[in-house]
Design a protein that fits this description.
alpha+beta, Glycosyltransferase, Beta-galactosidase, Chain A, domain 5, eight-stranded antiparallel beta sheet, five-stranded antiparallel beta sheet, 16 helices, globular, DUF2264_N
């Protein structure tokens, strides 16, 4: 057999990458527990030349969307059946056992994020012998039918509701596929829908990303010639732009999280493309300018393998986080590394679609990988999880666009982010710090956290719990919930006046200086308990230099990241280096090491936990503890390190500092990083 000389190198490359992908598939993912659950998404005929890291092309994205949509349609037997899914046990709604029209509206509009781009290309699509286009048109019509269980009343009162959110989503889908979802409706149905939807859009909102739901409703019906409040629309556009803080970050009043990306940035891009550039070009230009800032910052928040960080509320929306990346294709900017953007995007899709715990009852669970109650909010129902389907709006970008045609690559991880070093990206106005660790290919973030719990319903404390209050969030180590006995991962907990362990939540950013990230933190229930914090990122982890400035005696604990049990039991080992105790745990994928340098005595322990980790029911953490008294040395210096399993630790890696000196007032701590720079932590 002979092979054309021009094709032979390509064939060899393909064979190499095929072997590489097979090898990767045979290695258990750090976030995947061995399971016999439902069939995960399969990539048929992967394209290892165009996409050497994931095998996924635009066609595979369509397959992935259809895979999820088929699960939703397993509950649809007739055109009259609503998009209603089994209630997940826990705090999600409905909590009274009664299905609501809003719950069904969520299922309808959010699954439409998948259906709309698929129908745009294939209006005759059928699932289970049901015309998908007929189904969605019929269900849209039923929204204004008073005899229907899915009937949505016109807005009553001067307040906003979840219906506004879903009508915003519906408007996006009507913009995306008007020939299939809007134009075939009768004029009577169009007018009825306009009256209902505008009653929400042409009214009050929440001072957050919610303004975009009004914007999309108002904009769509303006584009169709209906009367609407243009002054209100312009006001909401101005207010939305005022949330921008630079480097791609919008403030979602009051916090920074994925809503900057899967809301503000994604909405701004789609609105500009489908409406703004024609009717409001100045606003569209500003949204596009803000959107361009993304590519120099946001991609660094994902791991080398394309894994997202578990961080912030609504994390059950999962790969909705990638929605801005394909939309970069609308810019058609030659300065954008589209191969890297798609590599990240497809990687995050597979992070979840390849996990056997994602689906239950054929639809996504509420949680992270699978069900995880600590990460669920009360405002979610089962259909809420389909907000992740925003990712598939990327299919609105044409097939010939460079986002789809560029060859996958590892972007900054190839030459810019070099092993043996650590890299920080600090955004001055948002005060967000993104850190990349080439040694393990992980990304990490430190951001806003200053939400007050108060005395309301504890289930509503989603901004003052683990979603935001960790010291840091890492793509390799999803956050673990706190235990009632003081078990804690990547945070401090204190025993409060009720003798319960309470995590710190009220952080105040102070400065980022000489590669050191400074914050102060106060215990919400007792202002007498406070600390001054300094984070120094290292090639293999973090050095913490923290000063306890509490004015009373208090018990406290500090935890490293946690390791889930993913295959075998977690191994433990101890070492002693230069008089310092070293505790190492290893789950077969990663190792974590903790080394108390000052303040903790001999308190270090490994704790096995159950039901607290989003990856596995069983996990382990390393904690240190102390009883602080005002007369003792207030400094707590701690090394929190990591490596991949199987890699050897040198003594200098486990204790990478020397020549440690402390000023008399404990406000200045100086040391040399072995093989690196001299550092001085200054609390002045």
């Amino acid at each position: 057999m002979t092979i054309d000389l021009l094709r032979k190198p390509l064939l060899l490359v393909a064979l190499f990458y095929s072997a590489n992908m097979i090898a990767q598939q045979n290695v258990i993912n750090s976030h995947q527990v061995v399971s016999e659950k439902s069939q995960v998404f399969q990539i048929k005929n992967p394209d290892n030349l165009l996409s050497p890291y994931t095998g996924m092309t635009r066609e595979h994205w369509k397959d992935a969307g259809l895979y999820l949509l088929k699960g939703a349609f397993s509950y649809i037997k007739t055109l009259d059946d609503p998009m209603l899914f089994p209630k997940q046990e826990g705090k999600s709604y409905p909590r009274d056992g009664k299905d609501s029209e809003t719950e069904m509206l969520e299922g309808l509009c959010r699954t439409m994020f998948i259906a709309a781009p698929l129908l745009k290309e294939n209006p005759s699509l059928k699932i289970n012998n049901i015309s998908v286009a007929d189904y969605y048109r019929h269900q849209i019509e039923k929204l204004t039918d008073p005899t229907s269980a899915t009937f949505i009343k016109r807005r009553e009162g001067n307040y906003s509701s979840q219906n506004l959110v879903e009508f915003g989503a519906l408007s996006i889908c009507l913009f995306a596929a008007p020939d299939v979802l809007w134009k075939p409706l009768s004029q009577e149905k169009k007018d009825a829908l306009a009256i209902t939807m505008l009653s929400y859009g042409d009214g009050p909102t929440v001072d957050s990303n919610w303004k975009f739901f009004n914007i999309f409703v108002l904009s769509f019906f303006k584009s169709e010639g209906y009367a609407m409040d243009e002054t209100l629309l312009e006001g909401y556009l101005k207010k939305s732009l005022a949330h921008y803080r630079g480097d791609g970050w919008y403030n979602d009043a009051p916090c920074y999280d994925y809503y900057s990306m899967w809301a503000f940035q994604m909405y701004g891009s789609i609105w500009s493309e489908y409406f703004g550039k024609k009717y409001y070009p100045e606003f569209a230009a500003q949204f596009k300018t803000n959107f361009k800032d993304l590519k120099n910052n946001y991609p660094y928040m994902f791991s080398r393998d394309g894994e997202m960080i578990m961080w912030g509320r609504s994390i059950t929306y999962r790969f909705g986080s990638i929605s801005p990346f394909p939309l970069m294709g609308f810019e058609n900017d030659p300065q954008t590394n589209y191969g890297w953007m798609r590599r990240i995007s497809s990687g995050v899709l597979l992070q979840f679609l390849k996990n056997p715990n994602l689906l239950k009852d054929n639809v996504p669970t509420l949680g992270f990988y699978g069900e995880f109650e600590p990460a669920v909010q009360r405002y979610s129902c089962r259909g809420s999880a389909f907000w992740m389907a925003k990712a598939f709006l990327g299919l609105l970008v044409p097939a010939e666009n460079p986002f789809w045609t560029a060859t996958e690559n590892d972007g900054a991880w190839e030459n810019e982010l070099i092993k043996g070093k650590v890299y920080n990206k600090f955004s001055e106005k948002s005060e967000v710090l993104i850190t990349d660790y080439p040694n393990i290919g992980a990304a990490e973030i430190r951001a806003w956290s200053s939400a007050i719990k108060g005395t309301g319903d504890p289930n509503d404390f989603y901004r003052s719990n683990e979603n935001y209050n960790r010291l840091a969030y890492n793509s390799a180590f999803p956050w673990q919930a706190d235990g009632v006995n003081g078990e804690v991962a990547m945070n401090y907990v204190f025993k409060n006046n009720t003798q319960k362990w309470e995590a710190v939540t009220l952080y105040t950013f102070k400065k980022f200086e000489n590669g050191i990230y400074y914050r102060d933190v106060v215990l919400e229930s007792d202002a007498a308990i406070s600390m001054r914090l300094a984070d120094i990122t290292l090639p293999n982890g973090i050095l913490r230099v923290d000063k306890n400035v509490s004015t009373k005696t208090v018990d406290l604990r500090l935890g490293h990241y946690s390791l889930p049990v993913v295959k075998n039991k977690i191994k433990r080992s101890n070492r002693a280096i230069n008089g310092y105790n070293v505790q190492i745990i290893d789950n077969g994928v990663y190792q974590l090491a903790m080394i108390p340098i000052s303040g903790w005595g001999n308190s270090m322990e490994v704790i096995d936990t159950k039901g607290l980790n989003p990856v596995s029911n069983e996990s382990s953490i390393i904690n240190v503890s102390d009883k602080f008294v005002t007369t003792k040395n207030p400094l707590y210096i701690t090394l929190m390190l990591w490596k991949k399993s199987g890699e050897k630790w040198t003594n200098n890696e486990l204790v990478p500092i020397k020549n440690l000196t402390v000023s008399n007032d404990n406000n200045n701590v100086s040391f040399d990083i072995i093989g690196g720079d001299k550092k001085t932590v200054s609390f002045n």
